[in-house]
Amino acid sequence: RRLVGFEDECRKILEDGLEMRCEFTNCAGDLSTVSWVSNQTYLAGTTVHMDSHNQQYNKPGNLVLGSVARGSATLKAYPDHRIPRPLVERGENSTEAMRESQSPWLYTSVVSSDYDRIHNRIYSSGFDKKVKVWKVDSAGASMRCIGTWEHEGPVNFVQASLFDNQDEALVATAADVPTNAVRVYHVSKDDRHVAQSRFKPFSCSRIVNSDGTPMVIDKWTYFPSTMRWGIEQSVKHLLLVGYSPRSLTGDDNDIPTDRSNTGELCLWDAVSGKGVTITSARTQNVFEVLWHPTQPVFIAATSPAGYALNFDRVKTQVRIFKQVVDNGHSTGLAFTEMNALDCYAVDINELTIMPNSPHFCFVTAGCTDGKTYVWDTALGDKPVQVLAHGQPVAGVTAGDDTDDTGVKFTAWGTSMDRFYTGSSDGIVKVWNVRSLGKKAKGRVILEAPAQISFGAFSPDKSKLVIGDASGRVFVLSTDHDDGSPPSFVKLPGGVKKRAPTTITPHADPPPPRGVALTDGRALGRRYVANGQLRYSGDPTVGMVKDMKYAETGLYCREAYLGGNTLMPVQAHFEAYLQ
């Protein structure tokens, strides 16, 4: 038995009213990042189709600004993360007809964002090799770009420090480049000078050989895999970065077998520009890192290491590091490993920490196997709960490293009695992990049509934004009046279903310099002149294929058997067309 706090019980009752209030559709791809600006406004980014073989599916909606209030909800697209569409030399996207039918711009994946509440700026980064700095208006209805920082590779991470320097802000970025991948920007408090911010670059030590010569970088190298600023007051100026080996061609076979489980944990003092010592367990492959909210302690999800470890069962570990005094180092500080928590999943996506006493805490790891492992650090290195989701949604192969993403959303609610997970089964659940001695049971609060890809609570925990792999954004709230009044569509059998709202699109940006847009009417006349289209003679039918239509390459290949346009259309597509 334990004492029950009245305020805690009231908070739990209120939180249990968290339900979906609105749904948006037609984002560019999987939701990959969400950052709340206030309790009503958030910014979100998505992945997109960028490869040469699927650029025809590239579309706007990769960066959106959302607003949720009583009686209204909006999700507005912004076009700023884009590049001129590259010329494709092979495949269906190489034809003149395909090029003319597509936008001259290629929208790029937006994979990271962060809000600086001290200086009221929000940052976004992506595969256009840029970081954008934004100012959101006081109403949360729109935003304007006040600065752009160019990088030499895709920018996977951007994060603002909570360190309150009187003269400038500290913002870190990490890009996919072999050297100097990490930058710490010293950003003026004056918005007019943000674009000219100076930065200091950092590199991990493993890009050089033991004799000090540069490592040969031809097929693979170490890239930043995770990055976090310290949270507790004494470590807010410390930047923690994890590195993992990665192929430069996308083929993991390029990585030598003896390097596949290696990596590096790096810790830098952004004020002095010097490294901070990590005394042990710093050379494993690093999946994720996270700082303790109230102590100079951090955790790191890494590949396993240890003399007495059962490697057949233990596939990864979550290591806990604490700060110690190091008089032999220039900073006078160091961090050392104090514990390692054993995990049975091959890869870890998400980490959380929830203090449960002055000296101990709950640690969770959301993993690619569709399970979230929960440890109580007071009870040893084995999980006290394993929170399992079901099989992935239809069309996704269970356990496939590429398709099955597993658990991609983990978060604590207002208390230790409410913990949330979202996985590749398209389900978001809430759990009470304090049911020690018995298996925790999850309650479903959202069912999405695709894999859950990201989620984030508002600062006051009253709202939750969830994104899935189909370009949908779901807004859950404890307030019944939040969001626009729902509209419903009637399905066969009299069943009514809530209709999603399409995001508000942005205007088409002007074409890149030197690129002229082709008028649609001129393009249509060209198709007719080339014998690719002809008028059917029926105004209700309009234009149809002509003898040379195949030259256009404009086919929905998914509709054909085996993706071969010479084969018949698949039955379910044929039925849909009828």
TrEMBL record:
GO terms for biological process: regulation of actin cytoskeleton organization; TOR signaling. Gene3D superfamilies: YVTN repeat-like/Quinoprotein amine dehydrogenase. Keywords: WD repeat. WD repeats lie at residues 400-435. SUPFAM superfamilies: WD40 repeat-like. Pfam families: WD40. The keyword tRNA processing does not apply. The keyword Ribosomal protein does not apply. GO terms for cellular component: TORC1 complex; TORC2 complex. Belongs to the WD repeat LST8 family. This is WD40 repeat-like protein. The lineage of its organism: Eukaryota, Fungi, Dikarya, Ascomycota, Pezizomycotina.
